[in-house]
């Protein structure tokens, strides 16, 4: 069983995994119980149940079958079935549930021919679309490959970029993000004032400037040459033994592959695979895989990064743009640490808080780039340990137009402290 904090919970169940007939499947059922051990509410808690865990309780589930959920009042529970490896068979089932303080919830689970019939409110979305020759945008793509030499769009010469909003965008009912599919390879923020999924259409009409506030929200961040909203870089020793910071971008990787893994209604997940990141002439190219997830009710996305061939001692560097912020602030709890900014730093000249939260065990250091003379500028940095080439972080964005408690620094900081408590205590 995997919770939203990526903490694995061992469950030992003695169940005989015998082949069952169709009739037995119709009769087979079990119960899964969850407990919120905190004395505070857990809103929109992501529950991820792996096929192996469910089959330990129900027996082997055929590829064509589904596991369905019902609450204690026998009402069906909305579930999302995600095929992570593309083999046509679901690997995980996702639930999104809220728990009051110390609440226990039990769900009856059983095998069915089809998912439960529930009218689903879409709360997470990811999309990537290419421009057609006639200046329309094509269908939403499941896969795409873009060269690392792809230039940034010069809007003084062409009104539309080659990709809708310049690259893949992802959102939930609270906030949205995008990544530029060009040599900048930076992440940006969509501030939202609607719970609706809007990023399939934003940017289609050049008459509607998404840098200006609309009914749905706006692009709230200026990225420049920074690491924006959690872009990736590597800190390592160069041939002279000096610490060197290199962005994943600036025409230093061969290509990036986009793969949509799942797309709502509860969670959206996609993968970016970077081929042959050339960080230095004397070092072998690094292979990078970033899996980005977002789910309903949250003001963050979660990034899980894997590197192959990273130099010994290298650390992953991510960060927060500081073009319009005067200070950064460190924040700690028992097991979680992070860095945040809060200032009038939105493109709307109003208040925006940004933060990166990570497990304390992942932290190498916090820092700051120069504001001139280097390839990465205007960034407060977070340096993370690579354990077996892997690390992860959450990037938060709190725009004052999205939520009342984001209108001042104290409200944003209190929100982050609450988030850290929730991250420390997964459901049991």
Summarize the structure in words.
It is a single chain. By secondary structure, this protein is mainly β. It has two domains: 2-112, Immunoglobulin-like, CATH 2.60.40.1180; 121-428, Beta-galactosidase, Chain A, domain 5 (Distorted Sandwich). The chain contains three helices and 27 strands. It has helices at 22-27, 51-58, 409-424; strands spanning 2-3, 29-35, 42-50, 66-70, 76-77, 80-82, 92-99, 104-112, 124-127, 143-147, 169-172, 175-179, 187-192, 217-219, 233-237, 243-247, 253-263, 267-277, 286-295, 300-308, 315-321, 329-332, 336-343, 352-359, 363-368, 379-384, 390-399. The strands form five sheets. Strands 10-17-18-19-20-27-24-23-22 form a nine-stranded antiparallel β-sheet. A five-stranded antiparallel β-sheet has the order 9-11-12-13-14, with no helix packed on it. The longest helix has 16 residues, at 409-424. Mean pLDDT is 93; it is low at 1-26.
- Average pLDDT level: 93
Query: Main beta sheet: strand number and arrangement?
Result: 9 strands, antiparallel
Q: How does the helix and strand content classify structurally?
A: mainly beta
Q: How many distinct domains?
A: 2
Shape: globular
- Second CATH tier, the architecture of the largest domain: Distorted Sandwich
What's the total helix number?
3
CATH topology of the largest domain: Beta-galactosidase, Chain A, domain 5
Per DSSP, what share of the residues sits in E-state strands of 2 or more residues?
A: 35-45%
Question: Which stretches are poorly predicted, pLDDT < 50 over at least 5 residues?
Answer: 1-26
* Run of helices and strands: EHEEHEEEEEEEEEEEEEEEEEEEEEEEEH
Which CATH first-tier class of the largest domain would you pick?
Answer: Mainly Beta
Question: How far is the first residue's CA from the last residue's CA?
Answer: 10 Å
Q: Give the total of beta strands.
A: 27
């Amino acid at each position: 069983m995997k919770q939203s904090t990526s903490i694995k919970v061992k469950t030992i169940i003695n169940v005989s995994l015998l082949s069952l007939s169709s009739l037995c499947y119709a009769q087979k059922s079990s119960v899964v119980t969850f407990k919120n051990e905190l004395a505070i509410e857990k809103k929109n808690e992501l529950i991820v149940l792996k096929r192996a865990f469910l089959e330990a309780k129900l027996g082997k589930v055929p590829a064509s079958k589904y596991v369905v959920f019902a609450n204690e009042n026998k009402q069906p529970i909305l579930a999302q079935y995600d095929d992570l490896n593309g083999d046509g068979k679901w690997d995980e089932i996702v639930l999104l549930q809220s728990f009051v303080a110390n609440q226990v919830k039990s769900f009856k689970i059983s095998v069915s021919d089809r998912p439960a019939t529930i009218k689903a409110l879409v709360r997470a979305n990811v999309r990537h679309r290419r421009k057609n020759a006639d200046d329309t945008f094509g269908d939403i793509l499941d896969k795409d490959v873009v060269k690392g030499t792809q230039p940034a769009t010069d809007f003084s010469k062409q009104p539309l970029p080659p990709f809708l909003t310049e690259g893949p965008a992802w959102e939930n009912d609270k906030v949205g993000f995008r990544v530029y599919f060009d040599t900048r390879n930076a992440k940006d923020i969509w501030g939202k004032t609607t719970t609706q999924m809007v990023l399939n259409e934003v940017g289609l009409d050049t008459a509607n400037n998404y840098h200006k506030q609309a009914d749905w929200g706006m692009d709230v961040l200026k990225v420049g040459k920074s690491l924006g909203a959690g872009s990736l870089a590597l800190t390592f020793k160069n041939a002279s033994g000096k610490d060197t910071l290199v962005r994943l971008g600036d025409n230093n990787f061969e290509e990036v592959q986009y793969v949509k893994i799942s797309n709502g209604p509860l969670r959206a997940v996609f993968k970016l695979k970077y081929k042959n990141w050339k960080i230095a002439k004397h070092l072998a190219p690094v292979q990078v895989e970033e899996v980005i997830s977002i789910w309903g009710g949250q003001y963050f996305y979660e990034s899980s990064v894997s590197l192959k061939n990273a130099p010994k001692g290298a650390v992953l560097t991510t960060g927060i743009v500081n073009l319009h912020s005067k200070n950064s602030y460190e924040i700690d709890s028992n097991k979680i640490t992070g860095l945040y900014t809060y200032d009038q730093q939105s493109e709307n000249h109003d208040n925006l808080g940004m933060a990166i939260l990570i497990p304390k065990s992942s932290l190498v250091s916090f820092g700051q780039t120069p504001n001139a003379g280097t390839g990465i500028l205007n960034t407060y940095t977070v340096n993370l340990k690579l354990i077996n080439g892997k690390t992860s972080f959450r990037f938060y964005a709190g725009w004052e137009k999205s939520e009342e408690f984001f209108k001042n620094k104290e409200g944003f900081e209190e929100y982050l402290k609450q988030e850290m408590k929730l991250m420390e205590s997964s459901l049991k």
